[in-house]
Amino acid sequence: MPPTSSQTAKRLDPDKLAASALELADVEGLEAVTIRKLAQRHEVTPMALYRHFSDKEDLLAAIGDRILAQIDLPKPTSERWDVQLRTLLTAFVQALRPHPKVAGLTLYRILISEPGLALGERTMELLVEGGFSVDDAAEVGRQSLCSLITLVTTEPGSNEDTDPIAREDALRAKRASLAALSPHRYPLITAAADTLICPASTDRYYALGIDLVVAGIRGVLADLGDTHAAASQQK
Amino acid sequence: MPPTSSQTAKRLDPDKLAASALELADVEGLEAVTIRKLAQRHEVTPMALYRHFSDKEDLLAAIGDRILAQIDLPKPTSERWDVQLRTLLTAFVQALRPHPKVAGLTLYRILISEPGLALGERTMELLVEGGFSVDDAAEVGRQSLCSLITLVTTEPGSNEDTDPIAREDALRAKRASLAALSPHRYPLITAAADTLICPASTDRYYALGIDLVVAGIRGVLADLGDTHAAASQQK
DNA sequence: ACCTGAACACCGTTCAAGT
DNA sequence: ACCTGAACACCGTTCAAGT
Predict the structure, then answer these.
(1) Taking the C1' atom of D4, which residue's CA lies nearest?
(2) What pLDDT, on the 0 to 100 scale, is given for residue A68?
(3) Separation of CA B48 and C1' D14 in angstroms?
(4) What's the CA–C1' distance between A100 and D9, in Å?
(5) Nucleic strand C under 7 Å from the C-beta of B35
(6) Which of A56, A152, A219, B33 could crosslink A96 through cysteines, CB 3.0-4.6 Å?
């Protein structure tokens, strides 16, 4: 008879390891996620982790998967495809937002993890419903999701220290570097320095980012339609 | 009399160091860029590099700056703002394309290096000419440039080994992982597997990516206009 | 001013061994 | 099956010293 899980003295499990790795990354940054540190947190030898992850890349993949698992996929409705797409992309961003320092790890996992695949499939569904060919839906969907990941990882101020003092210092230093520029040579950048360093409202930052993606999709679809129409007229 | 540069036996200079670091990254990837390896390439002790870069971060910044320095900023013309913007963004992508493995380093340098600032200022100029407020131009421009950087760093196939054999292996493995999916559960993803793994044409991939960004900008501008119009009507 | 040399703290990972 | 312990190759970086 094989030992049941209650009999084996399993002290570690991959889910909890990935969870505390994600925690570590959120607080101290991705470079702080180390096999050795993670082992220490679980009061175990570094080598013990290799029972559960084949190597560090595998651990980072688990972190990415954990973030994607937080996606709360909205149910299909009777709304227009582009309205539903906006809701879908917003749900995606919502899952990433708590983890700006490591959201980039999802890039390589969207087409592998189950929740990522579900998101990708649903995105393509809506794009095809809107009128894209399957191949165009793939390329457009891919870039849209990648752009939104970048929107989160580049959220101004997100990569600073968690420590509020060091954080203010970093922001002040950035502001100073822009303030030192010649307003004559860079009138617009210096005028918008505050916005560039840290947007007035984070919610607006994300709303505008998502709008930009959705508007791009609508616009490209219209252009492709024109091209087809023009091609038809040439006959 | 201070020694002229011909008298000092300077064996290293930051420009050449950054250049060979970029070369190294292009061929072997960013993780291969190491103070020690770079020193070895120049037949020098690792510590010698610290005369020219304050630390590794500084070296990576120099790589980013080197890429941005390749931007060939198009001259202003009498074309419409959005046509000129497309040309400008294309020039930006053109500078990044030779370096998909390290183009991400430019993210933190756009608002610091001179060519990056020139690009940012010109982008904002065109956006303001199009009708954006200065602050909106800052946010929209920022995300547009970030999206294009991501477009390059996620160019399918770009992060594989340079070795054509290993490269084919990696692509085949990815294809297999998508091919193993249930076409019943993921009909669109499996149907578009080839396109997702490696787009039919790289030039088309980039053209579509830039179109998406420009169309998004145009669309958001129109929406903002509507909002203003609606707000005016409410008076 | 520019480079060397030895040392330190910290990585990921292999291999052999314990229970 | 799961974990330990010692070791290896490789990092970035400090410090003191050479010319």
Answers:
(1) A45
(2) 98
(3) 13
(4) 33
(5) no
(6) A152
Better pLDDT: A170 or B132 = B132
B13: the nucleotide nearest its CA (via C1') is C2
Q: Do B215 and A213 touch (CB under 8 A)?
A: no
Task: Find and list the nucleotides of strand D having atoms within 7 Å of a protein beta carbon.
Answer: 1-6, 10-16
Question: Residue-wise pLDDT tens for chain B (235 aa)?
Answer: 333 343 345 678 999 999 999 999 999 999 999 999 999 999 999 999 999 999 999 999 999 999 999 999 999 999 999 999 999 999 999 999 999 999 999 999 999 999 999 999 999 999 999 999 999 999 999 999 999 999 999 998 787 777 777 788 888 889 999 999 999 999 999 999 999 999 999 999 999 999 999 999 999 999 887 776 665 554 3
Q: Which of A38-47, A151-160, B12-21, B221-230 has the lowest mean pLDDT?
A: B221-230
What is chain A's Cα-based Rg? 22
User: What single-letter DSSP state applies at residue B125?
Assistant: H
Question: Can you tell me which residue has the tokens 């602050």?
Answer: B135
C-alpha neighbours within 13 Å on the C-beta side of residue A153? 22
pTM confidence score: 0.94
Q: Do B196 and A142 touch (CB under 8 A)?
A: yes
Residues whose CB is less than 8 angstroms from the CB of residue A128 and which lie 6 or more positions away in sequence, other chains included: A134, A137, B188
A128 contacts B151? CB cut-off 8 A: no
What pLDDT, on a 0 to 100 scale, did the predictor assign at position B182? 96
**Positions on chain C within 7 A of a protein C-beta:** 1-6, 10-16
B84 by Cβ neighbours in 10 Å (0-12 / 13-18 / 19+) ranks as buried
Q: Cβ distance A109 to A95 under 8 Å?
A: no
Provide CB contacts within 8 A for A173, sequence distance 6+.
Answer: none
pLDDT digit string (tens) for A62-74? 999 999 999 999 9
- What is the spatial distance between Cα B130 and Cα A209, in angstroms, rounded to a whole number? 18
Which of B142, B182, B190, B204 to mutate: most A Cβ within 10 Å? B142
In Å, what is the separation between the CA of B36 and the C1' of D10? 10
Unique residue bearing structure tokens 């590099």: B49
Neighbour-count burial for A185-215, b at 16+ CB within 10 Å, e otherwise: ebbbbbbbbebbbbbeeeeebbebbbbbbbb
Report yes or no: A161 and A170 within 8 Å, Cβ to Cβ: yes
In sequence order, what DSSP letters do the residues of A41-85 get, joined into one string? Answer: HTTS-GGGGGGT-SSHHHHHHHHHHHHHTT--PPPP-SS-HHHHH
Q: How many helices (H) and strands (E) does chain B have?
A: 10, 0
